[in-house]
Queue: 2 jobs
Job 1
Amino acid sequence: MNSKFVYDIPTKIYFGENQLKNLGKELSKYGKRVLLTYGGGSIKKNGLYDKVVEEIKNANLELFELSGIEPNPRVSSVNEGANICKKENIDVLLAVGGGSVIDCTKFIGAATYYNGDAWDISLGKVPVEKCLPIITVLTLAATGSEMDTGGVISNPKTKDKRGISFPVMRPKVSFLDPTNTYSVSKYQTACGSADILSHIIEVYFNLNTDLYMLDKVMEGLMKTVIKYAPIAIKEPNNYEARANLMWTSSWAINGFVNGGKRQAWSVHCIEHELSAYYDITHGLGLAILTPRWMEYVLDENTVKRFYQFGINVFDIDKSLPEMEVAKKSIEKLKDFFFETLELQSTLTKINIDKTNFKVMSEKAEILGNTKYAFKPINAIDIENILKMCL
Ligand code: NZQ
Ligand code: ZN
């Protein structure tokens, strides 16, 4: 392998049932004053909140709370959380939720060391050198935020959604109990699975050919999502399906599969504009966009990657011509998203028209650095891809 990279993924994982008994011990390593962050109430409905609070009390820790963190979390929640941390001298953050809660908590951890609007951090005006320690209890398999360095927040006033990534924001410990995802709805399970798949696709589609080992890992991860997402949707309490999705979500984006894959991602930056303007679920936007992006970038230069994808992920007959396999693989992906996972297949179906496409495309080109992508694309290309999604 010619590639050069650093492997450093220090998040400690407690995987499986009944691991929460280790929560108090892990929190105590960082101090006494804990800020528990969570979303709109799903953890109260499924009983997880009570279990977490019990562990905190048993460990004689002081509990503070921030609830109501929104899907596509807002900068206002970050500022609210950072104010609590400053006022109450919080030692450690405990995020219990999906990617939105964990991302918001990462920003809170960073904003605690900044005297100003947390939005400045998302704009890159402030380097993130310090962050409060973060422990997570994951409740939705999707973003990989439980084991990665990234976070994304939104500013509804300016219709912006921005992501940042700093090593100090990576969770110290994450509790991954698949049974905590039994209550995730069919729709969120489908969206989360589309997100996991997209994280792998963004890396897998590259023109480097020297990382065979990682290509095989990624193909295995993609096959895992394709095998288990439909099972989790039909049988929400299927442990095997939930466990495979959960562990795949973490490994899709924790940094491991990128070793040496250097180019910018193509689809996430476009989706983030859709969420910014229309507050849609991230995974749904990715499902609509990804096959259209594939159709747009498929050509004589890129066909080999699509061919590998088709034969190794969807088991398409390898004796067929490369271009035929490539096109069939895109059809298979559409079937997976729109038939098997039953996600809406177009922007029109979710009431999005072309009104904002131009400005969204210009922002996506800049924020996504898409001129360094698998196939370089500019704002005009992005607008064309968005139109293909109508
Ligand atoms: O708020 P509650 O009541 O908890 O309900 C949530 C929310 O309505 C619900 N939910 C979560 N766990 C549940 C549950 N409902 C029942 N049972 C459970 N166990 O699901 C809804 C969606 O939750 P959310 O956290 O928004 O979903 P997800 O995990 O998909 O996170 C999406 C956010 O993460 C960002 C996205 O852009 C989006 O803002 N991303 C973060 C990344 C990262 N940190 O690396 C990378 C991704 O590409 C992505 O951009
Ligand atoms: Zn994503």
Job 2
Amino acid sequence: MSFNDLGLTPELARAVAEKGYTTPTPIQRAAIPGVLAGRDVLAGAQTGTGKTAAFVLPILQKLATQSGRLPRALVLTPTRELAAQVAESAREYGRHVNLRTLVIFGGVSEKPQIEALRSGCDLLVATPGRLLDLVERGLLDLGQVRCCVLDEADRMLDMGFIHAIRRILKLLPRERQTLMFSATYSADIRALAARSLREPLAVEVAPRNAAAERIEQHVYRVPQEHKRDLLVHLIDSGNWHQVLVFTRTKHGANRLTQALVAGGVRAAAIHGNKSQAARMRALSDFKQNRITALVATEVAARGLDIRELPHVVNFELPNVPEDYVHRIGRTARAGSSGSAISLVAPPEAPLLKDIERLLGHSLPLATLPRYTVNPPRRSAPPATPVPASAGVPRIPVYRAQPRRHGRHPSPRSHRAQSGKER
Ligand code: AMP
């Protein structure tokens, strides 16, 4: 699906193309036609999903051309940073249409904002406190607002803006369209939605509460057959104590666990073929730091109460992009950050694209470190998880590599792929 399929005017489609976007994100696909059709929208979407364009584009289209002095669309945001960002996006997306966007927020002198309002605007982006202040002093009239967006509504409520929001909504014409965006759904949010939205179109694109922003995400592009060696290297060199590793299949989980154990990493696998007792044991060993790596399939990991991890590794990317968000959500630690690393082999490139589309941004590519490459082992060592007390020695598996390009066997350690080659 392209932006043209969403019913946007050529002017807006052009601005979007100039931003370099080729495909609408899921929230944009779901919300844009609904907003254009005049529906109220309740959207569960957080920063990074492309939510700003999901409401700014159709609003600009509905505003069509510059009219009088008074704002016809209003976006409320919790912070001045977000207000400035939304206004900036509106100006960029609206660069080929004749509309004026203004932004007002507290904490700075009100004079220039009052001055700017005198010249009028079509779209007004504001934080609730300053907005209400200006309205109550008769410096701003919201009587022409036909569309109102509550952006990051949950944060606005957290910040104590509920009364301001209610008062602002009362000042708006009853005949209007209201859109509400929130990353979470508390009882207060649901109450606000019930009060202010009419038969809203419900759109949900990412799991609630997935604190994706706090997670440092990286991609290593690496051949499939190098992945386990790279993983051993990352665990060793980063001195990782706890890492949850996702594989796509049970068989893959077993094989990787064997390879990690052979590489000197204390590891255990959990998947559907393991007994409940074995899974519980692996989990408890993991939680108590008796094993370093827990290798899991998607399904097995879902049922487990493991959160707040420092590291999650996607040994293989999931087929369903939403699963990526579920997986990396495991690293969400209150107050601190986690890391989520994806090892992406060339055939997985389309899966990566799907994930990036869902996230609304690309994932940073990390430079491959030097790691030791060993040829595939013919007979794998036993897959048994290593008991707590065993104190696994590091098993050196140094073998000469197969000849490459007719040269002598290459050294054990090599720089795998330069940035250019990738
Ligand atoms: P937001 O969730 O609105 O904060 O947007 C997150 C980031 O995604 C912003 O940097 C946008 O510029 C970008 N973005 C929004 N829509 C798209 C799209 N369709 N394709 C690629 N990037 C996008």
